[in-house]
Amino acid sequence: MSRVKLVWFVPEEALDATRDAVFEAGGGRIGDYERCSWYTAGTGTFFGGERTTPALGESGREERVAELRVETVVPEGRIRDAIVALVLAHPYEEPAYDVYPLVDQ
To answer: How many CB atoms within 10 Å of residue 90?
Structure first.
């Protein structure tokens, strides 16, 4: 089964909601293990334009916010479902996420 790695950035209070959504969409399975993920703390930065309504901070100024970087694996055929679930569960207007191909041995 071909898998990809899904990585996203989220405030700590939304960690469980986003993880649950991605797991329910098929992510986080490695062999006989479920709900597998990894996360670490960092600082996200952004500058929202006039038409934005950021969940944290204010538009029109650069913000620095405490966030978690979350990683999990998703079957390649389920990545669109996982992204939709992530975006719906995420508190940000424009959630940042990355998808990386994985090489199966």
So the answer is: 21
